Amino acid sequence: MPEKKLSVEVLCATMFQKDFSKIEEMNIKTDVFFANQSSEHFYAEKEFNGYLARMVTTNQRGLSKNRNTALIYAKGDICVIADDDVEYFDDYEQKIVSAFEALPDADIIMFNLSSKNGNSERAMKEYSKIKKVGKLSRCGTASYRIAFKLSSVQKANIWFSPIFSTGSKYYCGEDAMWINDAIKKGLKVYTYPEYIASIDYGNSTWYDGLLEKHYFTKGAYIKALYGKLCICYIPYYLIRASKRSKLSFTERLKWILNGVKAYNADLSYDEFIDKN
């Protein structure tokens, strides 16, 4: 008896959607779940081209909370995390399934996305080969690059941090923390050199040109991720992307340390500024 084909489901975090028009905009050709944040609560579903689209709308706020809603409702054997400005290539399902078949021990695989606008300043690092990701790896993580075996993530009980992400206390870092948590819990994570979609990096809601708030958030992220060992990782984040920052070395260090202090005091960027 032939093996059952792995099912793929896109898990898309979005806001203020009234219908399923994102299916066509994103070129979705698999099942899809939309975690939709708005001002109301409702459930909707739609069949299209032999696939099922589902949408749960809530009035909560914060990208991590939205992604966690998608994790709660996810059904696919393999789930693909998405933002609503991703446009999938026609063969994305085949590429993703083939990657998991080629790496049967993989729980999570991260793929490439091309830039719609050619904005190299914001574009993510390209994965040029299959590589296992370890605890100390720096792999250019972004949520929309991630595909995972749902059963593995459910068994390991992995969720996105509600205080890190757009619309939360600290505006980014949730994706890297999610991957780090997965590795800590024994899941096997790989990068894979296939392009599955394109994205408009110019629409980024978190990119601030590597200014004060960016380094402040990195400080909070480093503290949350490494605890007392965070001091060992500060040099890496000081140097990383330093040529693209308008801040001096001293200013970058200052704001990273401010972020560490603020995390210890449970303060957001605005709260920290008000108190200092």
Number of helices: 9
Structural class comes to: alpha/beta
Order of helices and strands: EHEEEHEEHEEEHHEHHHH
Rg calculated over all Cα atoms: 19 Å
Strands, total number: 10
**Whole-number mean pLDDT:** 89
| Approximate strand percentage | 15-25%
Helix content, binned percent: 25-40%
Q: Tell me the number of structural domains.
A: 2
CATH architecture of the largest domain: Alpha-Beta Complex
Could you explain the architecture of this structure?
Helix 6 (212-226) runs antiparallel to helix 7 (230-239) and helix 6 (212-226) packs across helix 8. The chain is α/β, with parallel strands linked by helices. 33% of the residues lie in helices and 23% in strands. Strand 1, helix 1 and strand 2 (31-37) form a beta-alpha-beta unit. Strands 1, 2, 3, 4, 5, 6, 7, 8, 9 and 10 form a ten-stranded mixed β-sheet that branches. It has two domains: 8-203, Spore Coat Polysaccharide Biosynthesis Protein SpsA, Chain A (Alpha-Beta Complex), CATH 3.90.550; 212-275, no CATH class. It is built from nine helices and ten strands.
